[in-house]
């Protein structure tokens, strides 16, 4: 009887997958041609695929084939009170967007600053559960999803703005107290050399000391920063800082840059705005109206490749539940400067008591 049962069990077993029975080099070549946004789906197929999608050999193959692409990483906190957990924007088999957690990455400090350099994300400073401010610096390898601790900051701060210029990360402002307002009490600019992995400290003038920095971007080697009072343009090489009242005429925040044009989604007016730093003029991208904004909602805009991703938070007041939606937008700039946008995807990507703290496009 036992032999019959064994025979029946053998009969019920599924035959090995054609893909997994392929020689390793052919399997590697096949998976390298699949867009990376589908890798979260592949990783749950089997241990073999889970190992394959994080292997250095796969990304070497992708690079050789010319299949490197921009991927989107999202730092999320629960109600802006817990440590950061990382997600990546993926696609389901039905081509819908979704946010996929990255369990191999440990929690990160709250209100740290983030900078992309190559295929890495640098995380600097922040709070641990609104307690101790940490001077820690970490480099996230977005290929292997591993973390490397780096030389600590000269001064521990949270809520600073940071941008990359010529291989150096400029950490500006931030609070070195436990105050939840995150006002900029530091009068120093800390500069991290990503190659030498060393810090340099520079003095700055008293611009916006005692205020909170709201946003920053890098355009053409200059760092653009916004506080409640005004917007500044900091020329890193010369150490010169000037105000830009035209830029400050809009409440830009959680913004990004493509081809030296700043973009942000105005959730109050339900439109995508663009600031051309060469012409020093604001415009509206035609064809983009997402229509989900209401009181308590807010947006976050980021670039990956030549596309934009706009995340919208829709808050349900009674349950305090947050719906996070993501729109993927292709851009076109016509002769004469007219800017057009096409919404290619617009999906509900996460539900829960969650808040996006930062979105970053990484080329891998």
Task: Explain the overall architecture.
This protein is mainly beta and 364 residues long. The chain has 3 domains: 2-65, Monooxygenase; 69-102 and 256-357, no CATH class; 108-249, Kelch-type beta propeller (Neuraminidase, 6 Propeller), CATH 2.120.10.80. 11% of the residues lie in helices and 43% in strands. The chain contains 5 helices and 24 strands. The strands form 6 sheets. A 4-stranded antiparallel β-sheet has the order 3-2-1-24. A 4-stranded antiparallel β-sheet has the order 4-5-6-7, with no helix packed on it. β10 and β11 form a beta hairpin. The longest helix has 11 residues, at 2-12.
Task: Briefly characterize the structure.
This protein has 364 residues and is mainly β.
Question: Layout of SSEs?
Answer:
Blueprint lengths: L1 H11 L11 H9 L6 H5 L3 H6 L3 H10 L4 E8 L7 E7 L5 E5 L11 E5 L2 E5 L12 E5 L4 E5 L10 E5 L2 E5 L15 E6 L4 E6 L9 E7 L2 E6 L3 E5 L4 E4 L12 E3 L2 E6 L4 E6 L4 E5 L12 E7 L2 E10 L4 E13 L5 E14 L2 E9 L1
* The CATH top-level class label of the largest domain: Mainly Beta
Rg is: 23 Å
Q: Return the CATH architecture of the largest domain.
A: 6 Propeller
At CATH level 3, the topology of the largest domain is Neuraminidase
Residue share in helices?
Answer: 10-25%
| Main sheet summary | 4 strands, antiparallel
* Tally of separate helices: 5
Mean pLDDT: 85
Q: Could you give the count of β-strands?
A: 24
- Helix/strand order: HHHHHEEEEEEEEEEEEEEEEEEEEEEEE
So what's the overall shape?
A: globular
Ends apart, CA distance between termini: 56 Å
| Widest sheet: strand ordering | 3-2-1-24
């Amino acid at each position: 009887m036992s032999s019959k049962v064994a025979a029946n069990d053998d009969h019920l077993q599924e035959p090995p997958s054609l893909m997994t029975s392929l020689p390793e080099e052919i399997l590697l070549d096949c998976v390298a041609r699949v867009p990376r946004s589908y890798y979260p789906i592949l990783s749950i197929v089997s241990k073999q695929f889970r190992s394959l999608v994080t292997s250095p050999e796969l990304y070497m193959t992708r690079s050789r084939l010319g299949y490197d692409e921009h991927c989107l990483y999202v730092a999320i906190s629960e109600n802006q009170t817990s440590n950061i957990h990382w997600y990546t924007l993926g696609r389901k088999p039905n081509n819908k967007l979704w946010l996929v957690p990255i369990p191999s990455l440990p929690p990160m400090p709250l209100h740290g600053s983030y900078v992309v350099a190559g295929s890495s994300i640098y995380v600097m400073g922040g709070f641990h559960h609104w307690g101790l401010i940490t001077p820690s610096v970490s480099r996230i390898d977005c290929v292997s999803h591993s973390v490397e601790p780096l030389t600590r900051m000269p001064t521990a701060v949270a809520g600073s703005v940071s941008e990359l210029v010529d291989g150096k990360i400029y950490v500006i402002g931030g609070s070195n107290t436990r105050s939840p307002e995150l006002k900029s009490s530091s009068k120093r600019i800390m500069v991290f050399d990503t190659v030498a992995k060393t810090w340099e400290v520079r003095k700055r003038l008293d611009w916006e000391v005692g205020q909170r920095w709201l946003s920053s971007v890098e355009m053409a080697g200059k760092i653009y920063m916004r506080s409640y009072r005004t917007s500044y343009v900091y020329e890193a090489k010369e150490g010169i800082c000037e105000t830009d009242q035209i830029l400050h005429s809009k409440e830009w925040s959680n913004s990004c840059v493509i081809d030296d044009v700043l973009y942000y989604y105005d959730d109050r007016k339900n439109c995508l705005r663009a600031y051309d730093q060469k012409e020093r003029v604001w415009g509206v991208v035609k064809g983009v109206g997402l229509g989900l904004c209401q009181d308590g909602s807010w947006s976050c805009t980021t670039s990956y490749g030549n596309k934009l991703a706009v995340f919208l938070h829709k808050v349900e007041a009674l349950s305090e539940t947050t719906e996070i939606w993501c729109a993927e937008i292709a851009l076109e700039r016509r002769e004469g400067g007219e800017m057009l946008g096409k919404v290619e995807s617009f999906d509900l990507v996460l539900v829960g008591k969650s808040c996006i703290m930062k979105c970053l496009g990484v080329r891998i």
